[in-house]
Amino acid sequence: MLKYIGKRFLMMIPVLLGISFILFTIMDLTPGDPARAMLGEYAPQQEVDKLRDELGLNDNFFIRYGRYVLNALQGDLGTSYRTNTPAIEEIKARFPATLKIALLAVLIAIAIGIPVGIVSAVKQYSFTDIASMMSALLFTSVPPFWLGLMMILLFSVQLRILPAVGSDTWKHFLMPAAAMAAAQMATLIRMTRSTMLEVIRQDYIRTAKSKGAPPRRVIFRHSLQNALLPVVTAVGISFSNLLGGALIIENVFGISGLGTLMVDSVKGKDSPMLIASVMFAAFVGGLVNLLVDVMYIYIDPRVKSLYVKG
Predict the structure, then answer these.
(1) Percent of the chain scored above 70 by pLDDT?
(2) pLDDT tens digits along 216-226
(3) Residues 132/137/141/147 CA torsion (nearest 10 deg)
(4) Which of 19, 46, 70, 171 has the most CB atoms at less than 10 Å from its CB?
(5) Which residues of 109-139 are buried (b: 16+ CB within 10 A; e: fewer)?
(6) Contact 12, 283 (CB under 8 A)
(7) Which residue, among 11, 20, 18, 30, has the nearest Cα to 77 in the 3D structure?
(8) Using CA atoms, how far apart are residues 221 and 76, in angstroms rounded to an integer?
């Protein structure tokens, strides 16, 4: 098991290096001068040139990238051009808010999406099935930011039961999490339904029914367990997407998270902060994928026999 996890960790290294190189290249090609942005539009050119030398911005591209990689290996992800604070410290302060939204959104999507998908598959072509599929199509089509605005109008402006902006209490995270969970929930409904339909048509399910196994045992023990692999994959992908795609929702609800940090970094051409933020999100996404792979082993023994030796 540990050997397998170690191999998966090693596979993340080239991925992170590729992401860092692409980000570094894009930020280098975008117009604007970080030194000018830091000193202001009317700062003397002499001061701007001096600051560029201090920051090493006049060095060759590959020298600057190599220096960044070496520093990153030592735990230094750079210093923000805007705030002059270590990028990792800013990320530590902002990431918990984004993580809370993503976790709550995934829990909402799982709590509603999987049960509805199971019921929809068991009662195929019934009114429940048709209603759930129509709801899934609707939630997939609705943009999260629009849904968030409508929720603010209803729950904050009209009913006044939930706060509209901020991140001080758990109530502040309910609406942004629900807005982001809608599309993920729809995905889980459709995924669970399709995989369950494939499984319940298998011969061993018919055999279990013919032997008199209780319907609950057939559904949850024999069918659901064998239909979980694609669903677990969808949950992992959804969580990774929520971590990296919360920037719009965070701006709608005035939450100072990792998404707003990325937006502010792009506006200020704060390359160290932007690269560090995206790299951190990519690393967390890699950990989530690793967790999904480990869960495969416990869900399906066939996966363990294929990939885990000893």
Answers:
(1) 95
(2) 788 877 777 77
(3) 0
(4) 19
(5) bbebbbebbbbbbbeeeeeebeebbebbeeb
(6) yes
(7) 20
(8) 48
Q: DSSP character for 254?
A: T
CATH architecture of the region 87-307: Orthogonal Bundle (1.10)
Q: CA 111 to CA 182: how far, in whole Å?
A: 12
Alpha carbons 129 and 138: distance in angstroms, whole number: 14
Tokens of 145: 């930011």
Total residue count of the chain as it appears in this document: 310
Structure tokens at 54: 């201090």
pLDDT tens digit sequence for 234-248: 888 888 888 776 778
d(CA 256, CA 265): 13
- For residue 194 the two structure tokens come to 């399709």
Using CA atoms, how far apart are residues 240 and 235, in angstroms rounded to an integer?
Answer: 9
CA–CA distance, 240 with 40 (Å, rounded to integer): 37
